[in-house]
Design brief:
The relative contact order is 0.13. It contains 4 helices and 11 strands, in the order αβαββββββαββββα.
């Protein structure tokens, strides 16, 4: 085939496959990017993992590829470039509103939980998610509010809640 067409057969020959290695990194290392020292082919080298890589991302280097495996973080879940986390709020905090400290990938921020927040309400922190691998912004961070209802109440707390319920019924009766 080479004699007639000047090259190898396009049908049967396998191209030289690139060597592929895998590396496991932490969730925040994947989000922020990291330099890692690795031993590849008997040589120790430093490779740069760019910010925003996702699980099973393939990064191409000169003679080889590296596939990234990411250890999960108990505080955060990733969906594309967005981050999801949960924040607990007491029944009273959800009813009256409050300001809570929320952990993000960039550290703690203050989040206003509005009065009347219902269980599983999701509040968006714009631009606080994963940076795009090729630049050009970041995803969002979504905080799901988990309203904690007390399991054990004192006698006084029960009386106050019953009074609260009765007050609510009186107001409804007027309309």
């Amino acid at each position: 085939f080479e004699q007639f067409f000047g090259g190898a057969s396009p049908f049967g020959s396998a191209r030289a496959r690139r060597a592929t290695y895998s590396i496991t990194i932490d969730f925040l290392e994947a989000v922020k990017g990291v330099m890692k020292r690795v031993d590849i082919g008997g040589k120790t080298q430093t490779i740069k993992i760019p910010a925003g890589v996702d699980d099973d991302s393939r990064i191409r280097f000169d003679e080889y590829d590296v596939v990234v495996d990411i250890r999960p973080d108990p505080r955060f879940r990733r969906e594309g470039y967005d981050i999801i986390s949960e924040q607990e709020a007491s029944f009273v905090q959800a009813a009256l509103g409050t300001v809570v400290n929320v952990e993000t990938i960039d550290g703690e921020v203050k989040l206003r939980v509005p009065a009347g927040t219902q269980p599983d309400t999701v509040i968006r922190l714009q631009g606080k998610g994963v940076p795009h691998v090729r630049g050009g912004g970041s995803g969002n961070h979504y905080v799901r509010i988990k309203v904690i209802v007390p399991k054990h109440l004192s006698k006084k707390q029960k009386e106050l809640l019953e009074e609260f319920e009765q007050e609510g019924k009186r107001k409804r009766d007027w309309f």
